[in-house]
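REQUEST ID: PR-0412
SUBMITTED BY: lab tech R.K.
PRIORITY: routine
TASK: structure prediction, single protein chain
INPUT:
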Amino acid sequence: MHEAARVTYRRTVSLQTRIALILWLLALLGASLSAALLMRRVDAELIEGARTTLINDTRLQANLFLRKVDEARRDVGLMAGTPPIAGLQRSLANDGVDPLDGSTAEQWRHRLNDIFAELLANKPGYVQARYIGFADGGRELVRVHREADGRLLRCTADQLQQKGEEPYMQDGRGYAPGTAHASSISLNREHGRIVQPPEPVLRVFTTIVTPTGEPYGLVIINLEAGALLARVAEAPGRQRRYYLTDGDGHYLWHPDPSRRFELERDAKTRPLDELPLLGKVMAGSDPASSMVDDVAELVVAARVVRYGTATDQRRLGIVAVDSFDSITEVTDRTLRDIVAMVFAIAAFAVVFAFFLARLVTRPVATLTEAVRTMDLATATIQAPKNLTGEAAELAEALHRAFEALGEHNAELAAKNRELEQFAYVASHDLQEPLRTLTSFANLLEKDLGPDLAGRPKDAVRFILASSERMRELVHALLEYSRLGRERALERVDLGEVVSLALADLQSAIDESGAELDVGPLPTIRGQRVELRLLFQNLVDNALKFRRPGAAPTIAIRAERKGAEWELSVCDDGIGIAEEHRDQIFMIFQRLHARDAYPGTGIGLAHCRKIVDIHGGSIWADANEGGGTCIRFRLPAGVET
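STATUS: complete
OUTPUT:
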């Protein structure tokens, strides 16, 4: 190798190396920036989506809570209606013996104990079932409760307590019978002391009265309220926090265990000051709200749950809080993985591109120059003679392709000239005699007036009608020749095109009472006006050739068939005999008399030409339920 050649070679390799490094750095920088911007946008979407997630989360908790309360209200109503409730009241009022059936008070207690025990055995969320009288300081008459180990205990007489000072006892004395009420959530107490470990409960009760209508006592179910917090435990590892308050805003639940049920310890804190969104919701009419705190980087949702009855006016506040770090944790990990992957791909790409450029760049550049300098008028290319391998094969293939293209272009130009001449004749030479014939026929009818009768009058009218028919055919022929002429392809939503076509046919649709069923349709690259005319002609035919006295049903569908889309317009009309299904797509071909079904006989020929323009095929099939299906296929290559 000469020295000059070696210098040129080294300079070429050095330039290629620098270009490869620059491209590598640009690709790396671009990919990293793109990934960072994408992840930032994803973070924003995740944070905004977290508002909906937290609102839905609080709604789920509220629904679970309300369902449990409603279930307890139904159960307490059923318990209040059982025979032992009234039987025990009668026996205690009659020296321990029921005057109706002779049962003793102990027998009635035993029966009610069985009912309460069965209820608690089947409802794990219930911790107590009681019958309490207002007399004797609100002493319990019957009580069954669940022990810490799950056993059910039927309390003896010495285990029954006085509950007359409890708020629910004082409220229940003033309530009418037949309605189940709910208390606020509080910690369960036995003998005046809070049960350990703390047991949050909600009491659902109904008032029992004497036969004379005097308040007698309450039937009460203690509902274990801690189940409401179950979803907190269902999200381990997340930084989501939950707060529950009573109707006055006092904490029932707090992420800090020392602040739970603060009201029970006479705490002086103001939770609504710490949770302003909850205060806003409690004071407003909307049951829930959410917000994004960009300063604290938190997403907050608050909901007020109203339960019980209008008399109770019970409320529960639920607040869910999630941090930006928790929400975007997955995108942070993804971004790190993407950056590492980009570095690896970029390193491999620059090495591969360097060697590939050495093999491909020179012959491709030579061939590109030959194509750039080719004779566009004759569509011929002078391929370089020093090409080898795939580059030589590509040059030969391009040469053959350009030769064939030149021949097709010449044929197409000749056909376009013939079509332009035909269009000119149709629009001028053919229409001019028609206008003359129509004018003289109108003059003849006007001049003769009343003297024109019988066969002459019919002949004049026939001339006018035939002339108008001929004008329509000439106009249709002219429109047929113009289909697809010099119109560029564009992105076309076939669903939108069909909607516009149906809007054009709305009058005919209303008149026929047709029912249309349009399925999902693809988006393609095509000629919008022609595709709209295609669907308009097919639906118009389906409306026109319907069964007499029946409203037509028309279905438009699209289905992927390998490398093509198959679209169909199916009706339940009069149908087409199999031997005529190819004939209908020929220009001016009719299967029915003009007075039975009007038209020019060119509509389906238009359809075939439009499909041909788009490189597809069209045919007719029989519909399974009767009628006709016009089907056509478009290559998948026109998709976008």
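NOTES: The first strand starts at residue 126 and ends at 133.
REVIEWED BY: pending
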